[in-house]
Amino acid sequence: MRNDNTVTSASTALLTDQYELTMISAALRDKTAERQCCFEVFARRLPEGRRYGVVAGTQRAIDAIADFRFGPAELDVVSGILDPDTLAWLADYRFTGSIDGYREGELYFPGSPILTVRGTFAEAVVLETLILSVLNHDSAIAGAAARMVSAAGGRPIIEMGSRRTHEFAAVAASRAAYLAGLSSTSNLEAAREYGIPTAGTSAHAFTLLHTTADGPDEKAAFAAQIDALGVSTTLLVDTYDITQGVRNAIEVAGPGLGGVRIDSGELGVLARQVRHQLDDLGAHGTKIVVSGDLDEYAIAALRAEPVDTYGVGTSLVTGSGAPTSGMVYKLVEVDGIPVTKRAAHKETPGGAKAAVRTRRSTGTIVEEIIYPADSAAPDTNGLSATPLQIPLMRDGEPVADIPSLADAREHLAQALVSLPWEGLGLSHGEPAIPTRYVMSQGNTR
């Protein structure tokens, strides 16, 4: 049970698994805790049906690492499972190593070294769960959101999924969705914390509220909303009969009404009918917003319809069928010695790695090449090559010029344009570009 007098709410140290700490205890005992190690974050494969992944959550992970501290409250929680030496080590814990990685908003593919964490075994291994929980969640949401943005073909999308996920996951989902190109969010905490534009007007409950002994009074609800928010607001017209709802909306607001929203039914058919009705009523500039369990496939199906804005919720905040990115955090080097896991279907190439992405003169990307971090970049057969990792932390401190959320949003928009055209398709298929390992001179796979 939470006790607000003893829990340090700002600390992220307990957002981890117990085995991270018991490994440290054992390593301290056998004197291996201080061996210099390199861990990498990567995904062995993309989620089912995806052609690319989107890196998101990097800044949140860096911020969380900075707050990874064991104060008295945190030590009290683990005191019953750890020995005094380990507790003393945790009390002094500060990450002092370095982190490089793909910038937020970058595309990734199977094997991409998304994050490289260097430090002692103890100080780096303890960050595994925290890093993975942030990156796996945010990248899954951003990947789903990017597909929705592509399907929308330039039409704005509002994120409105807060009620369909954990209250704090909702804030992270809003951030990841905005990074991927959504235009706004309904979540006010996301607005406060990340400066994301907000949107929202009214729910069916407000229309139903205006019911008297004489029956429903939709016009009264519309009039009250317009009085409070102005004629540029969007009225929800499907509480009762949509045709009558549109008629009532324009009668109350006039032809200058900002928009109408449809939240149920056959959205494509209804959008066409509503557009004709609005035009007949002289409301040519009134926009149509549709919502109601939309995913990227539903958005794509509505692309030919007279829809101006989409609202997405459940599918977005659950990753549209892929709620995690499947990223792992693996030890790849100990004191400069490459190490590798050999379990079936989970092989990990040993050694710290770097990566470049090649592209044609047109800007279209061709392949990703992964090679030893201490080697020169391999020959790219005349194609231009872009290094993919950037510095994120040095000596335990975030670097000064980590790209901002706005930078990440712009970077992803440009990165999606660089994909081969088939890579933007929603159909199942191979990753949009291949990943090639060049682990030693003349050795590729």
UniProtKB/TrEMBL annotation:
The keyword Isomerase does not apply. InterPro entries: Aldolase_TIM (IPR013785), N/Namide_PRibTrfase (IPR041525), NAPRTase_N (IPR040727), Nic_PRibTrfase-Fam (IPR007229), Nic_PRibTrfase_pncB (IPR006405), Nicotinate_pribotase-like_C (IPR036068). It is an enzyme of class 6 (ligase). Pfam families: NAPRTase, NAPRTase_N. It catalyses: 5-phospho-alpha-D-ribose 1-diphosphate + nicotinate + ATP + H2O = nicotinate beta-D-ribonucleotide + ADP + phosphate + diphosphate. One of its GO terms (molecular function) is glycosyltransferase activity. NCBIfam families: NAPRTase_put, PRK09243.1-5, PRK12484.1. This is Nicotinate phosphoribosyltransferase. Keywords: Glycosyltransferase, Ligase, Phosphoprotein, Pyridine nucleotide biosynthesis, Transferase. Signal peptide: none annotated. Transiently phosphorylated on a His residue during the reaction cycle. Phosphorylation strongly increases the affinity for substrates and increases the rate of nicotinate D-ribonucleotide production. Dephosphorylation regenerates the low-affinity form of the enzyme, leading to product release. Catalyzes the first step in the biosynthesis of NAD from nicotinic acid, the ATP-dependent synthesis of beta-nicotinate D-ribonucleotide from nicotinate and 5-phospho-D-ribose 1-phosphate. It comes from Gordonia jinhuaensis. Residues 158-335 form the Nicotinate/nicotinamide phosphoribosyltransferase domain.
